[in-house]
Design goal:
Blueprint: H1 2-34, H2 39-46, H3 53-60, H4 62-78, H5 85-96, H6 98-108, H7 112-123, E1 132-133, H8 134-144, H9 148-163, E2 173-174, H10 187-193, H11 207-220, E3 230-234, E4 244-249, H12 251-256, E5 260-261, E6 274-277, E7 286-289, H13 291-299, H14 303-316
Antiparallel strand pairs: 1-2, 3-5, 3-7, 4-6, 6-7
Length: 318
């Protein structure tokens, strides 16, 4: 009996939510028209759209989703991080697409390994792109998440993508959060960073677009090709300095405080400011990070994500 009541209440909640969602969609259509979205696009995209409980579940469990997304890279940190299958796959991809990657790297002044590492972490070199309907996903999150305005803006931009012919409403898929293509851009990133070639911005199936868009993102965000992202360090016993992104040092300061490279070597002389982070907690490794690491954090705010990309990039060229 209790199970029956639970199932009944669950179904009732879903149905009620669905009714409210349809009311929200009706109001949103009027707003979208005011934002310049064509009636044709609205009808093709929003007629018969349904609320997605699966998207809401994924949103609320996003910490677990992020851990699983990063697990393949963090296996390297926890275990070997040598010539594993994933790094070897990346090296094969670098050789396979060498000429294209070299051209993109020279154009945007971004080293090849970072382009390939982001490609790897976001979609496993293009092999894994999720299949959530983007419009349904963004509409659900604009209605039900705690970041409604942000997802509402992304939904308008996704509709503009359809309106402007970049994608078809019937084949518009992405992640549980609405990120799209082999580089997993949100619609806002698509319009700001996706490169246009012959009138197209194809981050789904065209590697010139994918590589160019990744490199363009890093360049426009301030990437410095002459500086490293950072490296692992040793802190002296009883280190009294502050750990975290908010505190910035010079390498001279840290050298005088007893901080050294792994192996005991002196820190490089760099004029740029640095910070000390422990992404895996006090029991994990300690890293000295430079401004390029913060550029990766603009892509994704997770320190574990950024470290995954940077360590994978290092592995690709060793």
């Amino acid at each position: 009996m209790k199970q029956f009541i639970f199932v009944f209440l669950l179904l009732f909640n879903i149905c009620a939510r669905g009714d409210f969602f349809q009311e929200w969609i009706d109001d949103f259509k009027s707003y979208a028209l005011e934002q310049g979205i064509s009636p044709k696009t609205l009808n093709a995209s929003l007629n018969n759209i349904a609320f997605s409980p699966q998207v809401v579940d994924a949103y609320h469990n996003q910490k677990e989703n992020h851990q699983s997304a990063f697990s393949f890279v963090f296996d390297y940190i926890k275990k070997l991080f040598v010539l594993t299958e994933r790094i070897e796959e990346g090296r094969l991809k670098m050789r396979e697409h060498h000429d294209l990657l070299e051209e993109v790297s020279q154009k945007y002044h971004v080293p090849i390994q970072y382009i390939v590492a982001l490609w790897a972490v976001e979609s496993r070199y293009g092999a894994e792109t999720e299949k959530y309907p983007v419009i349904q996903t963004l509409a659900t999150l604009a209605f039900a998440s705690n970041r409604k305005e942000m997802f509402k803006k992304e939904l308008i931009l996704a509709l503009k993508m359809i309106d402007q012919g970049y994608v078809n409403a019937n084949s518009f898929y992405g992640s549980w959060a609405g990120a799209m293509g082999q580089c997993q851009f949100m619609p806002s990133s698509f319009f700001e960073f996706a490169v246009e070639i012959n009138g197209k911005k194809d981050i789904w199936d065209s590697l010139p677009h994918v590589f160019g868009s990744i490199a363009n993102y890093l360049k426009k965000s301030g990437w410095n090709e002459d500086e490293p992202w950072g490296h692992q360090i040793l802190l002296p016993f009883g280190f009294k300095g502050e750990i975290g992104l908010k505190k910035k040092y010079t390498n001279d300061q840290l050298q005088n405080m007893g901080v050294r490279k792994i192996g005991g070597g002196d820190l490089e002389f760099l004029k740029t400011q640095t910070s000390i982070i422990m992404p895996l907690g006090p029991s994990g490794p300690t890293y000295l990070i430079y401004p390029n690491f913060r550029i990766i954090l603009r892509w994704n705010k997770s320190q574990k994500f950024a470290l995954s990309v940077c360590i994978l990039a290092d592995g690709l060229i060793r």
